[in-house]
Amino acid sequence: MTDSTSILKPGPLAGAISGDVIGSKFEGAYIKTTEFPILDEDSDFTDDTVLTIAVADSLTSNKPFSDTLWEYGRRHPDRGYGGMFISWLQEERPKPYGSYGNGSAMRVSPVGAACQSMEDVLETAGRSAEVTHNHPEGIKGAKAIAAAVFLAQNGSSKEDIRNFIVRSFNYNLDFRLDDIRAGYEFNATCQRTVPEAIVAFLESDDYESAVRLAVSIGGDTDTIACMTGGTAGPVRRS
């Protein structure tokens, strides 16, 4: 069961979009520091924002995920989509393409905002992923980010969030960003970005520090900051 009105409140959706915009200008730049201008004239939204809003639209309108992702992607071209997703957009009846890229996880934060139970979170996150990213790792990444968003928004401690992610998804979160920053290179898989995005949230003091940490490791900065930002967005209070 989902609460569509909760998606529209300040929280994970705004956090994810802001993270995308903040990280957009640093993709592949390897700045390796948390000290950078948070926004300037080169900051812009990317495919992360477009498809995050598409997922939110699916949840609020009860339209199939495949339809809204396809419609939004074609409506907003040239936003940095991956090659396989671009091909998917050219199909009239697109089918999943077995990807384990982080595109499934970057767009999933609205699921964590809308669902009312962890069972619903995991089921809905899986459905949102599998229309394109039907590889087990692509589905797993989406479920992990949606679960982290749901837990953070509903008041779970960072230690509880860490334990749930490790126990449920077998991700290794036993590292610090300081230890990987120098050697971290561009990677667009769920396996090498979802754990890093979650650790950025776990190490943070507030939203801004979370996004700065996410960007600071370099690589796919807009997507990592989008995933971190969705988790670190303002907490919903019941």
UniProtKB/TrEMBL annotation:
Signal peptide: none annotated. Binds 2 magnesium ions per subunit. InterPro entries: ADP-ribosylglycohydrolase, Ribosyl_crysJ1, Ribosyl_crysJ1_sf. Mg(2+) binds at residues 46-48, 220, 222-223. The keyword Acyltransferase does not apply. Pfam families: ADP_ribosyl_GH (PF03747). PANTHER family: ADP-RIBOSYLGLYCOHYDROLASE, ADP-RIBOSYLGLYCOHYDROLASE-RELATED. This is ADP-ribosylglycohydrolase family protein. It comes from Natronogracilivirga saccharolytica.
